[in-house]
Specification:
This protein is an alpha/beta fold. It has a single domain, classed as TIM Barrel, CATH 3.20.20.70. The chain has seven helices and ten strands. The radius of gyration is 16 Å and the shape is globular.
Length: about 210
């Protein structure tokens, strides 16, 4: 099957539309003030409104208050929510949107248990663990740690770029891959050639995921 592509950390319409034109199935908007890729509700509304049909617009939150998530949803056309903090399954389920739970891959993480705990999530997004950083570390983890029977529920993130994404797909066989820093000119601004090449490499790797 084809591996789906999410380009995260989008901060401007131009980058969103280029990602979609290059083959991205989803774009990610970060609602986390401590991130260099953070967007305001106003910025996000403009980006989401500009997206063509059938593109998933994902909102990323880190231990946000429910009232803030509701405020974002009131103004931004999000198709899916992504939670990167310590949110419980009950918290994630309350917003009447499909959702993804990010798991930071510490050595002691039990992915089977996490999959059961967040069994209502559309997917688990796996990112590298770095103390004090909830995501977007630019670092990778050992892809061999992903159980084969969970692959269809996995969005693989963490240090991906056009040079290693083919091997990542061959090793982990995830449903989707998520890239941010690996295709940037600087934090929050995408490098168009890197985005295009990343998407090309993912689509060239589809035979690995069969």
């Amino acid at each position: 099957m084809l591996t789906r592509i999410k380009v995260c950390g989008i901060t401007q319409v131009e980058d969103a539309l280029h990602a979609v034109a290059s083959g991205a199935d989803a774009i990610g908007l970060v609602f986390y003030a401590d991130s260099p890729r953070n967007v305001t509700i106003e910025q996000a509304a403009v980006i989401a409104q500009a997206l063509p049909p059938f593109v998933t617009c994902v909102g990323l939150f880190v231990n946000a208050d429910a009232s803030f998530v509701d405020a974002v949803l009131a103004d931004v056309k999000l198709s899916c929510l992504q939670f990167h903090g310590d949110e419980s399954a009950v918290f994630c389920q309350q917003f009447n949107r499909p959702w993804i739970k990010a798991i930071r891959m510490r050595d002691d993480v039990d992915l089977i248990a996490a999959s059961q705990r967040y069994n209502q999530a559309q997917a688990l997004l796996l990112d590298a663990y770095k103390k004090g950083v909830p995501g977007g570390t630019g670092e990778r983890f050992d892809w061999h740690k992903i159980p084969a029977d969970l692959a269809s529920r996995i969005v693989l993130a963490g240090g991906l770029n056009s040079e290693n994404v083919g091997q990542a797909i061959a090793t982990a066989k995830p449903y989707a891959v998520d890239v941010s820093g690996g295709v940037e000119a600087r934090p929050g601004v995408k490098d168009k050639s890197k985005v295009s090449e990343f998407c090309r490499r993912v689509n060239a790797s589809f035979t690995y995921a069969e």
